[in-house]
Amino acid sequence: MTMMTPKHWNRVLIAAIALLTTWLLVLLTPVHDLLRLTGLFNSSVPAESINPPVDPDTGYYLEELGEGAWFVSGWSHNAMFVVTDESVVVLDAPPSLGEAYVDAIREVTDKPVSHLIYSHAHTDHIGRADLFPEATVVAHALTAEALEARKDPRRRAPDITFEGRHSLTVGGVSIELAYHGPAHGPGNIAVYLPQQKVLSMIDVAFPKWVPVHEFAIAEDIDAYFAVYDHLLAYDFDHFVGGHANVGDRQDVQDQLDYALDVRESARAAAGNAPVQDIGKILAWTPNPYVTANFGFERMTAECEAPVVDRWDDRLGGVDVFTHSHCRRMVFQAITE
Ligand SMILES: [Zn+2]
Which CDD domains does the protein's record reference (predicted)? Predict the structure, then answer.
């Protein structure tokens, strides 16, 4: 048996210090962020959640939804267009798709783009409206109002605005636009193609994934929940949500069920730790925000754990964004 001599102990000590220093560096520097970015520490994404295979050469993925309606997806955003007997009607113009969107349309048809519908005012969905300079722009009046304030030359003012509902018939294709409240933000509309049974509502339901941060930064959380009743009342087979995959009715139902689960879990967590009790503790601390935040984080964690357990193998990104949804709903629960 070899005995450890003092010389050996020195080496062990140096190795231990080196290991500790490395770990400190990993924890304290951007290397830690880089490691997290690999996703190696996250749970795997369900196979059916994998996003559409964007062609790296063209920068888009194209899928026909039926009778001239097409789903087009880039790396992060998606949209749709419908080819009618006369022309093309496009929904949105995401900058992340950019000119690839025009290429995708040209892969299918040479017809001119006659109409551009704005789903809502956000630049990540309509910031390249200038790619369709000849098109008549249709949007909700609140979207027009928001754009008026932005003064972005790439998102020109709509030519046609409406408040409740608006219908278009272009080259024999019916397109029904409806405002069901500020689910994601003021003026975001549902776009429905009844012949093709295609429904679109951007930034509300993310087929086969959870919404991104805080229910996709929903401005009015009650309106976010309320819009699902309207969406599920449509007769549709395909759903275009602006991100992730093209979905169907079940995907919209799953998203609602997930959101309801978060809400119930947040209410339970908030009920277990009444704000009044947190208030009593705050009185004893020099920086009450630290204690308050600790309390909110405890409630958030209590909301998050069971939801992640129930949904992790059903939707993508449950492990990433359930925390933010729970935190938002905890605040909602203690104020509603
Ligand atoms: Zn948006």
Answer: metallo-hydrolase-like_MBL-fold (cd16276)
Q: How far is the CA of 220 from the centre of ligand 1 (A)?
A: 13
Say what the pTM is. 0.87
**Does residue 63 register a pLDDT over 70?**
yes
- Could you tell me which residues come within 8 angstroms of residue 325 by beta carbon, excluding any fewer than 6 positions away? 210, 211, 214, 215, 259, 262
User: In angstroms, rounded to a whole number, what is the distance separating the alpha carbons of residues 304 and 231?
Assistant: 26
- Ligand 1 centroid, distance to 9 Cα (angstroms): 60
Run of H or E residues at 64 = strand 61-66
Nearest Cα to Cα of residue 80 among 256, 141, 232, 67 = 67
- Around ion ligand 1, residues with a beta carbon closer than 5 Å are 122, 203
Structure confidence at residue 16 as a pLDDT band (50, 70, 90): confident
Please give the distance of CA 186 from its chain centroid, rounded to a whole number.
16
Listed in order, the ranges of the chain carrying CATH 3.60.15.10 are 48-202
Q: Residues 6 or more apart from 3 whose CB is under 8 A from it?
A: none
- Fold for 48-202, please state it: Metallo-beta-lactamase; Chain A (3.60.15)
Q: Round to the nearest angstrom and report the end-to-end CA distance of the chain.
A: 70
Among residues 281, 207, 295, the alpha carbon closest in space to that of 248 is found at 207
Identify the band that residue 203 occupies on the pLDDT scale cut at 50, 70 and 90: very high
- Kindly give the distance from the C-alpha atom of residue 274 to the centroid of ligand 1, in angstroms, as a whole number: 33
CA–CA gap between residue 121 and residue 141 (Å, rounded): 10
pLDDT of residue 14: 80
Chain center to CA of 193: 22
129 alpha carbon to ligand 1 midpoint, in Å?
15
The first and second tokens of residue 93, run together, are 């113009």
Which of 336, 260, 332 has its CA nearest to residue 296?
A: 332
